[in-house]
Amino acid sequence: MRIGNLAGVPVFLGDAGAYDLATASAGRFADARSILAGWDEFLDWAAGLRPEWTPYDPALLGPPVPDPGQVFGVGLNYTSHVAETGRDHGTRALPQGFTKFPSCVSGPCDPIELRGHTVDYEVELVAVVGRHAVDVPVARALDHVAGYMVGQDLSDRAVQRAGQLSLGKSFRTYAPTGPWLVSRDEIPDPQALALRCWINDEPVQDGTTADMVYGVAELIALLSAITPLRPGDLIFTGTPAGVGIFRDPPRFLRPGDEVRSEITGLGTLRNACVAAPAPADPLGQRWRDLKLDRS
């Protein structure tokens, strides 16, 4: 099944249109939070539905999970990306974990508000947690996944290289997701998906989730050994080679660019880049004035 957010209302999405889940459930499943918090109950309820489809405007789609409790990111988790950084990837070092603040999550058609001159793109598979996970083994880890989405882990490299990894990845609009949540039963192997990214129709990333250093199940096992994963949490699982900072010359996003991100079976994001408004206080300008440390 495909679950979307249509102008703030949770819906099933099909080829023939959308189906309002909040109305159909008489408010029981009024938003993504209530759906994911009661995932097993939702699946039982949804199994008996016979949707009546209504045409919809895709431009009204928002982030399928607009208010996640926790958003995890994983760096250096594709061997191709590790190689382009010049690092030794002969051994499986523990993944580089970080957080993206939930307030940076945006939708599949929302503009990317650029707040610096070194904003980079990273197409990623996003796993959505559907059941509490505490210290779960790899063999049972995928049982805790509700589904998957396409994501963009946008990064201000100057802020990141200044020692502010999570802040550099958490500016408003720096986590486009969607276009819908595809339930896990439709993606039997998350390690067999092609993912691609284009800037203005020029291909810049082309990889496969089979190239992950740590697969989705392993990431859930690793993260849940540290902190509980809760329904509605998001896990950005890493990006393949081709990001802007490691190109020669480096390529960063500019106003007027369009970022298109696609994963097999999950759909496509199309996000236009625009200039963000100037900071309200001169202190905020200091983030934009940082110079990229390439050491």
Automatic annotation (TrEMBL):
Gene3D superfamilies: Fumarylacetoacetase-like, C-terminal domain. It comes from Micromonospora echinofusca. Residues 71-272 form the Fumarylacetoacetase-like C-terminal domain. Pfam families: FAA_hydrolase. Signal peptide: none annotated. Coiled coil: none annotated. It comes from the Bacteria. This is Fumarylacetoacetate hydrolase. Belongs to the FAH family. Keywords: Hydrolase, Metal-binding. Transmembrane segments: none annotated. GO terms for molecular function: hydrolase activity.
